[in-house]
Amino acid sequence: MKAAFLTGIRQFEIRQTPTPCIAEDSDVLIRIATVGVCGSDIHYYTQGRIGSQAVKFPFVIGHEAAGTVMETGREVRSVRTGERVAIDPAVSCGRCDQCASGREHTCRTLRFMGAPGQLDGALAEYVVLPERSCYPVPGNVTMDQATLAEPLAIAVYAVERAAVTGGVTAAVLGMGPIGVSVLHVLATTGVRSVYATDRIDDRLAFARRLNPAWCGNPDRDNIAGEIAAREPLLLDRVFECSGDVRAIAQGIELLKPGGSLVIVGIPETDQVALPIHELRRKEITIINVRRQVHATRRAIELIASRKIDIGPMATHHFGLAETQAAFDLVEGYRDGVMKAIITLT
């Protein structure tokens, strides 16, 4: 089969590699149709690492994916050959204390697609994954939408963790795919008002399609002043989705006493300084979000029911041979890109 191997910093090569085979009775062989380029993939592309997770080249990355079931192990019951599936890229052990308590996403031996030293990624014609990582998608859901169910599931989980209900006020800092997904999910909760920020005007223009109460660019606008003028008591929830450490401090500034800062973005730095006295005086709750758990099916349902129109997020399409061009586009935030999709079949 063909796969796109990351062979060095900003270097991809399309190579032939053996097609994986089913090894366990719970395994599923999937022919990959579409792969989304994620911000975490860009870290591996431009830096060769995320924190301590360093790529040993050559390596196949990519984890936002959908495809068609080609073969199943003898014990597989939830999917069948020929069925289209969205993929949850996290593979848990199912046995440790975290898995037993329903926290498979913090499994003690969690393995993740396209993460160095864990599992090969999705930028390949075929992958093998456990049955529990495969979620059937109905006929009215496209492969692009099924691929986007992965970032949408993170947003579903983040909003659930933040206990957002009707009447809540919120801000989403960072209008990349995760931030826009959070904006989508918030719109289904009856939230009273949502504010959106980003340093890229094309992304703010995309966010305006979802009718936030106000959009602003922190490089140009007084974000805290503009939001405080509209919400004198400040906000109940702030979702930090950019990974910019400056946005974390700004999120704390935007929160009312007793509010919650939900950290969804992944900073590039290992250490973050916090305004501890403001945190203490306001008694701010900090909620960290690690990927998602038990939210993929709900994300698919939101797409299939048309409660969320996630399709427009797929702004650019490339073939497997154009993988490097796709990554360069996303890394440079060019041409209004929101999500680049690489199509394999």
Overall number of domains = 2
Helix content: 25-40%
| CATH class group of the largest domain | Alpha Beta
CATH topology-level name of the largest domain: Quinone Oxidoreductase, Chain A, domain 1
- General shape: globular
Quaternary state of this entry equals single chain
First and last CA, distance = 12 Å
Counted by DSSP, the helix tally is: 10
CATH architecture of the largest domain: Alpha-Beta Complex
Classify the beta-strand content into a percent band: 25-35%
Give a short overview.
This protein is an alpha/beta fold and 345 residues long.
Question: How would you describe this structure to a colleague?
Answer:
With 345 residues, the protein is an alpha/beta fold. The protein has two domains: 2-136 and 310-343, Quinone Oxidoreductase, Chain A, domain 1; 153-288, NAD(P)-binding Rossmann-like Domain (Rossmann fold, 3-Layer(aba) Sandwich), CATH 3.40.50.720. It contains ten helices and 19 strands. Strands 3, 6, 7, 10, 11, 18 and 19 form a seven-stranded mixed β-sheet that branches. α3 (143-161) crosses α9 (296-304). The longest helix has 19 residues, at 143-161. It starts with a strand and ends with a strand.
Give a quick set of tags describing it.
345 residues; alpha/beta; Quinone Oxidoreductase, Chain A, domain 1; Rossmann fold; 2 domains; seven-stranded mixed β-sheet; six-stranded parallel β-sheet; 19 strands; 28% strand; globular
Fold topology:
Layout lengths: L1 E7 L2 E6 L10 E10 L2 H9 L1 E2 L2 E2 L9 E9 L11 E4 L2 E2 L5 H4 L10 E2 L13 E5 L3 E3 L6 H19 L7 E5 L3 H10 L6 E5 L3 H7 L6 E3 L6 H8 L4 E6 L4 H10 E9 L12 H7 L2 E4 L7 H9 L9 E6 L3 H9 L7 E5 L2
Parallel strand pairs: 12-13, 12-15, 13-14, 15-16, 16-17, 18-19
Antiparallel strand pairs: 1-2, 3-6, 3-10, 3-19, 4-5, 6-7, 7-11, 8-9
Helix pairs in contact: 3-4, 3-9
